[in-house]
């Protein structure tokens, strides 16, 4: 049996893992300052977390070149479609695919689905970790003052270690494996807490168990 000290140790490691996850989910800092060139580059994709995929940029000519294109588009015999083919991208709204994506529709869609899945999984992991620490501090800790429970702080230590390793990867297959392992580890922590509460001698554990089950359900949501 373990008392409040073991739970406080678990909470401390979980809170450290939460800070690491939040930092890992932040956008990449720019790797290098933009280099001067004859073109201006604008991102066609939406801002996202660290796994924002490359290859989604559209080049727009300098103002002088854009004026020439505009004059050619307005010239007799030029249709609007021919103006678009000559490089005028003004008709594309922010929500429409860029020419780079249109050139590789299959690859662009695959990258977008992967990014969405990773972003969703990371968001669920961060939310579940935050809620778990909250429930442990406000509901479970007062119960342990009355009745010790079998706790497993080593799982929280492992969870923090996995999150720290994942933050160093930031992207790629290893990042995805670490993210999956972090999900599984947090799932194990919550399930063990639910099982431990089953031996509590009174019904005062029911709100805690219900809150933990809700966290687990949200963590595993597809």
From TrEMBL:
<feature type="region of interest" description="Disordered">
    <location>
        <begin position="19"/>
        <end position="112"/>
    </location>
</feature>
<feature type="compositionally biased region" description="Low complexity">
    <location>
        <begin position="88"/>
        <end position="99"/>
    </location>
</feature>
<feature type="compositionally biased region" description="Basic and acidic residues">
    <location>
        <begin position="71"/>
        <end position="84"/>
    </location>
</feature>
<protein>
    <submittedName>
        <fullName>LEU7 protein</fullName>
    </submittedName>
</protein>
<dbReference type="InterPro" id="IPR031510">
    <property type="entry name" value="DLEU7"/>
</dbReference>
<feature type="compositionally biased region" description="Pro residues">
    <location>
        <begin position="27"/>
        <end position="36"/>
    </location>
</feature>
<dbReference type="Pfam" id="PF15760">
    <property type="entry name" value="DLEU7"/>
</dbReference>
């Amino acid at each position: 049996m373990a008392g409040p000290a073991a739970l406080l140790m678990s909470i401390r490691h979980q809170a450290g893992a939460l800070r690491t996850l939040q930092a890992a989910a932040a956008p990449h800092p720019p790797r290098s300052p933009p280099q001067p060139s004859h073109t201006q580059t604008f991102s066609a994709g939406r801002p996202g977390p660290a796994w924002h995929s490359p290859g989604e940029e559209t080049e727009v000519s300098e103002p002088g070149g854009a004026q020439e294109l505009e004059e050619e588009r307005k010239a007799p015999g030029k249709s609007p479609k021919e103006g678009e083919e000559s490089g005028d991208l003004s008709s594309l709204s922010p929500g429409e695919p860029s020419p780079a994506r249109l050139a590789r529709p299959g690859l662009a869609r695959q990258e977008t689905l992967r990014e969405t899945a990773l972003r969703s999984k990371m968001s669920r992991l961060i939310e579940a970790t935050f809620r778990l620490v909250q429930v442990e501090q406000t509901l479970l800790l007062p119960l342990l003052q009355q009745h010790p429970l079998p706790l497993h702080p080593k799982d929280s230590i492992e969870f923090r270690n996995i999150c720290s390793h994942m933050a160093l990867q930031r992207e790629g297959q290893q990042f995805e494996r670490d993210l999956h392992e972090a999900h599984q580890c947090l799932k194990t922590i919550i399930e063990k807490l639910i099982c431990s509460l089953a031996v509590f001698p009174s019904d005062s554990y029911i709100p805690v168990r219900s809150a933990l089950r809700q966290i687990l359900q949200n963590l595993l949501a597809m």
